[in-house]
Amino acid sequence: MKTRMILLSLCACFCIQMRAQWGYGVKAGVVYSKQSVGYDMDIDSKWGLAAGGIVTYSLSDHFDLQGELYYANRGYKITIYTDMGAEKAHDWVFSYHYINMPLLLKCFPTGKGFYLLAGPEPEYLADMKNTIKNWKPEEPVDDTEWKEGHTRWGCSLVGGIGAIMNNGIFVDLRYNYGLTSALKDGKSKNRSLELSVGYMF
């Protein structure tokens, strides 16, 4: 009986310890993005949304390993002017729907609260769309060739800061620096700022 009690106690302690090392959460926020195209063009940033899930593993009091799976809408805008020249007529909006899978190292300099994070972010381009606001062409635009010119898989480098409260609510600000081109032929790399709020269970 004593042996069974000891084994059960050890098993319970092990399970509690394992549960303390793992954490799960959700997040949602906004994305402010554009692309670095490598040639002269009047490109503006656009706003998008992001949302997804988080898994963390505590390595120590000062370091966590964090994996994520989340959706982010990135892209850019091009200003179209009138035939006369200077007057702005339309916004040509390029919207990219990414599934992101970052693996991040989180550092807590003080052991809790404030943190720094960095790591690689593989990403999959699930869908894309380009629209011209207030533009009514006589015939629909066939963008099949435009879509086929993009790469589906890419990778970015992520760095950021954040803070988490004792109740599990956190705020996270990060910069996403594209390492690979979004185009098969060309140098068009994503750049984005992402601000998220979330909750760790």
Look at the structure and give the mean pLDDT. 83
Rg, Cα atoms, Å: 22 Å
Number of extended strands: 10
First and last CA, distance:
36 Å
Query: What structural class do you assign from the helix and strand content?
Result: mainly beta
Uncertain regions spanning at least 5 consecutive residues: 4-19
Q: Specify the number of helices.
A: 2
% residues in beta strands: over 45%
Shape: elongated
Taken in chain order, the helices and strands follow as HEEEEEEEHEEE
The major pleated sheet works out as: 10 strands, antiparallel
What do you see in this structure?
- The chain has 201 residues and is mainly beta.
- The protein has helices spanning 2-21, 144-148, and strands spanning 22-36, 43-44, 46-58, 63-81, 88-100, 103-107, 114-132, 153-164, 169-178, 189-200.
- Strands 1, 2, 3, 4, 5, 6, 7, 8, 9 and 10 form a ten-stranded antiparallel sheet that branches.
Which short descriptors sum up this protein?
201 residues; mainly beta; ten-stranded antiparallel β-sheet; 2 helices; 60% strand
Explain briefly what this protein structure is.
Helix content is 12%, strand content 60%. The protein has 2 helices and 10 strands. The chain has helices at residues 2-21, 144-148; strands at residues 22-36, 43-44, 46-58, 63-81, 88-100, 103-107, 114-132, 153-164, 169-178, 189-200.
Please specify the SSE layout and strand pairing.
Elements: H1 2-21, E1 22-36, E2 43-44, E3 46-58, E4 63-81, E5 88-100, E6 103-107, E7 114-132, H2 144-148, E8 153-164, E9 169-178, E10 189-200
Antiparallel strand pairs: 1-3, 1-10, 2-4, 3-4, 4-5, 4-6, 5-7, 6-7, 7-8, 8-9, 9-10
